[in-house]
Design brief:
Strand content: 5-15%
Order of helices and strands: HHHEEEHEHEHEH
CATH architecture of the largest domain: 3-Layer(aba) Sandwich
CATH class of the largest domain: Alpha Beta
Number of helices: 7
Number of domains: 2
Radius of gyration: 21 Å
Shape: globular
Structural class: alpha/beta
Strand order of the largest sheet: 4-3-5-6
CATH topology of the largest domain: Dna Topoisomerase Vi A Subunit, Chain: A, domain 2
Helix content: 40-55%
Length: 197
Amino acid sequence: MHAAPIEVLIEQFEALPGIGRKTAERLAFFVINMPKEKAEAMAKAILDAKQQISFCSECYNLTDRDPCAICSDPKRDRSTVCVVEGPKDVTAIEKTREYHGLYHVLHGVISPMDNVTPADLKIKELYARLAREEVREVIIATNPTMEGEATAMYLARAIAPAGITVSRIASGIPIGGDLEYADEVTLARAISGRLTL
């Protein structure tokens, strides 16, 4: 249907998450119609990111320097480590400007259905880090899914004997949400995690 190079480009776009055939075709034709310099700049940006981005040796976030900007910032509270599922979670928490500690990125969650075990995540690296650093609190900020909850419970049980405080981010009714539309699990969590005013 298309010339071979166009078809290859469409297939590459279609391999991206959330991109179907029609969107892949639109993207491919958009790239083909770009000025050559812009297409080369896009290709260079992809290659540069692939070559220059790696894991921080301390927190396992994606970075272009080691240690990353957060781990090397002397103003960060080194006694608190927030454990998250992925690099995008670090970005989300940083946007709040409310958390000033360090992070540890697991790169996933425990999921027996998907054959993901603790050995497949950066959990042993977390334990090693807690053993060598003066951490007083670990905040577990995995998503409130079955896998996220299972991972949180696994970590809490493993870390607690070391005398480190383990906390879980709060969850419940979102700002602007209506109680009548909330499910029972969300309501139960909101009630059990209530705060004193």
